[in-house]
Amino acid sequence: MPETNLDMSATALPENKGLALRGLWEVFTAPTSFFQKLAESPKILLPWILIGIIAAISFILMADVIFETQWQNPEFQEQMQNSPGMTKERMQSIMAVTTPIFGTLALLLAPLLIAALASFWGNFVFGGQATFRQLLSVSLYGELLYFLAPWYCCCRWC
Questions:
Q1: Which of 68, 71, 103, 131 is the most interior residue, by most CB within 10 Å?
Q2: What pTM did the predictor assign?
Q3: Which of left, alpha, beta for 72 (phi over 0: left; psi -120 to 50: alpha)?
Q4: DSSP labels, the chain
């Protein structure tokens, strides 16, 4: 009877405990090693929540500026004149609520769209070497990097 030599010792991958939280810092300080770790253990929830919080706060703080910029648009002025009963104050109160809500939703859906397009392109051209979860995780941390990089650079240089 032939003897089979099976190695029964399983090589366990090191768990990246706290990678999602550490990643908020490592994405700036050591992005190459962080994204390699992220490929092995994709993290999605924490960056998505943080993007939502940052986007909501940003849109709430900028709601008045967005409204004033929109109000100065001649096409918007014409639309307002054609809408009976719509005053500047009423439109400002409506936009103060809808701008943060829909702006935040748009920014939360952007990484999903990016990952879907990357997954489609990757499966079509490169033979699907990355999973959708990996692509989504990279796009989420990439968006966080995009949002927080100016703050990081300002704090680091000051």
A1: 103
A2: 0.75
A3: alpha
A4: -PPP-------PPPP-TTHHHHHHHHHHH-HHHHHHHHHHS---HHHHHHHHHHHHHHHHHHHHHHHHHHHT-HHHHHHHHHSTT--HHHHHHHHHHHHHHHHHHHHHHHHHHHHHHHHHHHHHHS-S-S-HHHHHHHHHHHHHHHHHHHHHHHHHH-
- In tens, the pLDDT along 24-55 reads 888 888 888 998 888 888 999 999 999 999 99
Q: Cα(84)–Cα(73) distance, rounded to whole angstroms?
A: 19
Contact indicator for 67, 100 with CB cutoff of 8 Å: no
Encoded tokens for 98: 């809808």
